[in-house]
Write a structure and sequence with these properties.
Two copies of one chain form a homodimer. Chain A has a two-stranded antiparallel sheet with strand order 1-2. Helix content of chain A is 43%, strand content 13%. The first copy, chain A, is of the alpha+beta class. Chain A has seven helices and six strands. Chain A has a domain of 98 residues: Arc Repressor Mutant, subunit A (Orthogonal Bundle). Chains A and B meet through helix 1, helix 2, helix 6, strand 3 and strand 4 of A and helix 1, helix 2, helix 6, strand 3 and strand 4 of B. Strand 6 of chain A pairs antiparallel with strand 3 of chain B. The structure holds a DNA duplex (30 and 30 nucleotides).
DNA sequence: CGAATAGGGTTGCATTATGAAACCAATTTG
DNA sequence: CAAATTGGTTTCATAATGCAACCCTATTCG
């Protein structure tokens, strides 16, 4: 039957996955972050079917992750550019990429090489930090959100 | 035709999405982080079909994100627990959750409430940082990885 | 100008994944 | 022992995916 949707889930991770949680959407966002803007370039770089790319781009536009901008003088040529909401996925993409590099390194050992434009130095691993800036593991935090509350009270 | 796979992609994000990039896997990891360990609990909390849950759990075990542990005395009762690789997805999940809370807040305004167990203080937003610990936006970094190299030299 | 090409998109169709429910075997619980 | 739990497989209808083939509108090339 229908793939389950999470539009009205009370879990924000589920709602987030509803927008960028399929195979292609996050890769499209990734390539947009690398500078890709044109339909044809997305298609060639990702090796994605055109109808699926159409579908994903329009959904990303609907969800305000991308916006569609006329690029040609007379219309009929467009660019898809990240919105602030889309750019805000930067930590997600970088964290996922670092995880992939760490646990599923490429055969050739190719790693993420993101550098501070100002200093040329590599960036740090993305981590969860407390209010003092100290890195925290999952064991160092407590969850006091709706899910936990539901489990305790229900 | 077949859903496209990225096992041997030279992009680590694609390889990462191959392991946790479907609708359910990351939600399973999320609930595992909240403490869920049993098949039935995952099923009830996620509202997932049993066959799909079987499939996802075994794939996550194959990919060493979870490990399957005998919980009953005589077998036939199991727990699925996060490995170090699985726990290492913590920043990804938290970043995604914060993004969801920021841009698609729940109708009731429910937010992520993760706190430092030691101090009780809320955690910081996950961000990308340079070697000095300063937060960086996507405009502050340069990408010097394989994809960019391929675009420059190709 | 006319033809070819490129960009963006839609349509058909075969293949695959998904979800609900039924069914199963082993193990607890009462 | 009977009934319920747990973890899992099977069956089947439906939805999503990928490929190829078209379509339409510019733009470029001869």
């Amino acid at each position: 039957m229908a793939r389950k949707r999470f539009d009205d889930s009370n879990c924000s991770v589920a709602r987030a996955l509803n927008e960028v949680g399929d195979w292609w959407s996050l890769l499209i966002v990734l390539h947009a972050m690398y500078g890709t803007r044109r339909f044809v370039d997305f298609q060639q770089q990702l090796g994605i079917a055109k109808n699926i790319l159409c579908d994903r781009l329009s959904k990303l536009v609907d969800n305000e992750v991308l916006r569609k901008v006329e690029a040609g003088e007379h219309g009929s040529r467009f660019e898809y550019r990240l919105t602030e909401k889309g750019r805000d996925l930067f930590p997600v993409v970088v964290a996922l990429r670092q995880w992939g590099d760490k646990w599923n390194p490429a055969p050739d050992g190719e790693q993420l090489d993101l550098r501070d434009r100002a200093t040329g130095q590599p960036i740090q691993p993305v981590s969860v930090r407390n209010s003092d800036g100290e890195p925290l593991t999952i064991r160092d935090v407590l969850v006091a959100d709706d899910l936990k509350a539901a489990k305790n009270t229900g």
